[in-house]
Design brief:
Blueprint: H1 6-10, E1 13-17, H2 22-33, E2 37-42, H3 45-58, E3 63-67, H4 75-82, E4 88-93, H5 109-137, E5 140-147, H6 158-179, E6 183-190, E7 193-194, H7 196-200, E8 211-212, H8 213-222, E9 229-231, H9 234-245, H10 249-264
Parallel strand pairs: 1-2, 1-4, 2-3, 4-5, 5-6, 6-9, 7-8
Helix pairs in contact: 2-8, 4-5, 5-6
This protein binds NADP nicotinamide-adenine-dinucleotide phosphate (NAP).
The site of NADP nicotinamide-adenine-dinucleotide phosphate has 29 residues, from helix 2, strand 5 and helix 7.
Length: about 270
């Protein structure tokens, strides 16, 4: 159940960066269901158009879309300009999944930079562009998507994990700072979730009880006020507790690496 004052607190407009499919789509549908208008950003225009038509057919809200590459240096500035005239009460930076599962040395430099730019540079600049607007409103929310993978290093997705650790800690700082002004900043940490982007990469999540995107969005939106960090899903909270309280980092990293290799369908090589 979403809070009864959801639209008053987070409306009249929500911005979802990475809002055309998977958890981003699920966030958009739920938020629109609360009567809040949505601005959806993604690279591909066709899925944006089709989701916008769907939402407008189901709910009495406005939907705006724009094709933006969130790894681009000017992505945050573009998002701010696109929404300049709108009273945006909720910003969800959803995009950010890994773009491949490979041993680090096999990653092309370009892909490493894409992830770092999107998950560190652009998330920071989004916060910097939208925090003053939210502060001025004196209410609203700013959400960065974290991952249980961001609680430890692992092979195959080391830069992804590191970027999610960055977002986690950034959001925690913003929680305390924006909290001064009545704005809910939060690291919304999720675990394995069945999304189109993971399916396209051929990720094998079968050993990780993947959640459904709409369940993730429902639980996340119901807990926007439970920062600085909220972990979605009982089994993910148990995993997070285990990872974060263990003093044996070698064992944790090895275990996370076994998982990443399994998701990649790759062989976990022994240490020399
Ligand atoms: N799925 C999981 O198992 C899982 C687990 C833990 C955490 N998470 C987190 O949950 C969030 C969502 O993950 P996801 O699996 O749904 O996949 P995702 O690829 O991060 O998100 C998909 C959405 O983001 C858009 N997008 C991706 N790259 C973009 C870019 N460079 N510029 C603009 N838009 C972009 C996609 O549309 P376009 O492709 O058209 O751009 C789509 O709308 C991520 O932050 C991820 O780290 C996911």
């Amino acid at each position: 159940m979403l809070p009864t004052d959801f639209s008053e607190r987070y409306g009249p407009w929500a911005l979802i960066a990475g809002g055309s499919e998977g958890t981003g789509e699920a966030f958009a549908r739920r938020i629109a269901g609360e009567g809040v208008n949505v601005v959806l950003l993604a690279r591909r225009q066709a899925p944006l158009d089709s989701l916008a038509a769907d939402i407008q057919g189901e709910h009495n809200v406005e939907v705006r879309t724009a094709s933006v590459d969130l790894a681009d240096a000017d992505a945050a500035a573009t998002a701010a300009e696109l929404t300049e005239e709108l009273d945006v009460g909720l910003v969800i930076f959803n995009a950010g999944a890994t773009i491949r599962f490979n041993y680090f040395a096999d990653w092309p430099e370009e892909d490493l930079l894409t992830l770092v730019n999107m998950n560190c540079r652009t998330t920071t600049l989004f916060a910097h562009r939208f925090a003053p607007r939210l502060i001025q409103r004196g209410r609203g929310g700013f959400v960065l998507l974290g991952s249980v993978a961001g609680f430890a290093g692992s092979t195959h997705q080391s830069v992804y994990n590191a970027s999610k650790a960055y977002d986690w800690v950034l959001a925690e700082g913003l929680w305390r700072e924006l909290g001064i002004y009545g704005v809910d900043a939060i690291a919304m940490v999720i675990g394995a979730t069945d999304t189109p982007s993971h399916r396209r990469m051929g990720a094998d999540l079968s050993a990780h009880s993947p959640m459904d995107s709409s369940d993730v969005a429902a639980e996340a939106l119901a807990n926007l006020r439970n920062g600085p960090t909220y972990v979605v899903g009982e089994h993910n909270r148990a995993a997070a507790d285990f990872i974060l309280t263990s003093q044996n980092r070698g064992a944790i990293v090895s275990s996370m690496s076994e998982s990443s290799a399994g998701i990649a369908g790759d062989e976990m090589l022994p240490m020399a």
